Amino acid sequence: MKRQRNRRVATFALLSLLLVSPLARASDGVLEINQTCAENTGCFAGDTPGFPVQITPSAPASSFRLTGDLVVPITTDGIRISANDVHLDLGGFAILSPDCVGTADDCTPTTSFGANGIEANTLIEGVSVSNGSVVGMYGTGLWLRRRAHVENVHARWNAAGGIRVDAGSRVVSCSATANGAEGFSLSVDVTATRLVAIGNGDSGVSAGAGSTLDQIVATNNGDTGIVLIGGASLDDGTARNNGDGDPSDHGVQCGDLGVVRDTVVRFNDGDGISCGDTASLIGNAARDNGGDGIECGNGCTLLDNTSFDNGDQAGDDGISCLNGCNVRRNTSRSNFENGLQLGIESGYADNVLSNNAAVAVSGGVDMGGNLCDGAACP
User: Fold this and answer.
1) Phi and psi dihedrals of 56, rounded to 5?
2) DSSP 232-269
3) Does the bond joining 52 to the residue before it have cis omega, within 30 degrees of 0?
4) What's the Cα-to-Cα distance from 105 to each of 12, 114, 291, rounded to whole Å?
5) pLDDT digits (tens, 9 = 90+) for 185-194
6) Fewest CB within a 10 Å sphere: which of 14, 19, 344, 348?
7) What is the predicted pLDDT for the residue at 23?
């Protein structure tokens, strides 16, 4: 009898311990995060009560899932990660500030406290975040470090940037809308596919050297739509209505060795596409931009591009390239000044140039096959 009573006491004690434990583990071994555990008990080992929820090396798993929205005080981060190779599934839920609860209106904070929705500490690697939203934070929506993976995450109305990742990361099927600064800030050697950046205060997407971007849409951003730094490349992009009245706000801007392919640029305040030296611009279409349709530095290759009805003042040309450029099979029509404006030692061949307000071609070396206003170019 005494042995049975002791066994019952031990069982009761074990059950009591489980009931008060902050650890919530789903049947698949993923640790759960919700408002109740975040505020009251901490959600797992290493996480103390209150925000931010802290994912540390002490956590007894590397996979985590939101089971409801997290409403975060405006002066602190929502989730802070200090462990490598963590996966966080937002589960279709949002991390948001109190300003954004129950409203469909713009709730962008008027100031920034640097409080981010999700942030990985410096030098943390391999964090992945997927399937949810970060809304109205008083800092950056999502800021991960090296070799991160971000997929199906949507950042809007955050005081600073929308989504920021460091070197070697991958960003897939994400959007950044109406954030106070850049929509996407991508460091060097980042791969990004299917991004949409709309109405952000600064550039829609900025990508560092060695980055590759594919299927990118940037519209109505306050600065240049898509910025490619130091040899980054863009394939299959759209940049429309970017800029706040500044002629240096272009549709796409690329540095030396940049590559822009199959991209449509229209109604941007500055040039449609503006690039540095030794860039390659292939198969792009520029129309109704405030400056040049397509402009490039020295030693560029311009192939199979179309430029139509660009420019609103003297010096705005359909296609402009400096010295030593290779300009072939382009179409330039109805632009404010010249169809082609080329520097010394630049060659042009097999281009179609018509109805431009000044001359069809200024400068360069005619290598044959060009058509100027319906006749062979002089």
Assistant:
1) -120, 175
2) -EEEEEEEES--SS-TT--SEEE-TT-EEES-EEES-S
3) yes
4) 51, 22, 34
5) 999 999 999 9
6) 19
7) 52
Backbone angles phi, psi at 295, to 5 degrees: -135, 135
Dihedral of alpha carbons 151, 138, 120, 123, sign: positive
Predicted confidence (pLDDT) per residue in 167-178, tens digit: 999 999 999 999
Residue 286's SS3 state is strand
Asked if the model's pLDDT at residue 9 lies above 60, the reply is no
Could you give the CA distance from residue 365 to residue 348 in angstroms, rounded to a whole number? 6
Dig out the tokens for 3 from the structure: 């042995």
Q: Which residue has the tokens 């062979």?
A: 376
> 25: which DSSP letter?
B
Do the Cβ atoms of 59 and 85 come closer than 8 Å?
no
Q: Which residue has the tokens 């060097």?
A: 188
- Distance from C-alpha of 207 to C-alpha of 210, rounded to nearest angstrom: 9
Using alpha carbons, select from 249, 104, 229, 237 the residue that is nearest to residue 178: 104
Give yes or no for a contact between 353 and 370, defined as CB atoms under 8 angstroms apart.
yes
Residue with tokens 């929502």: 78
Residue 81 CA to residue 116 CA, distance in Å, equals 12
113 pLDDT band (50/70/90 cuts)? confident
DSSP code per residue over 303-354: ES-EEES--SSTT--SEEE-TT-EEES-EEES-SS-SEEE-TT-EEES-EEE
d(C-alpha 180, C-alpha 207), whole Å: 18
8 A C-beta contact, residue 295 and residue 315: no
- pLDDT for position 24: 55
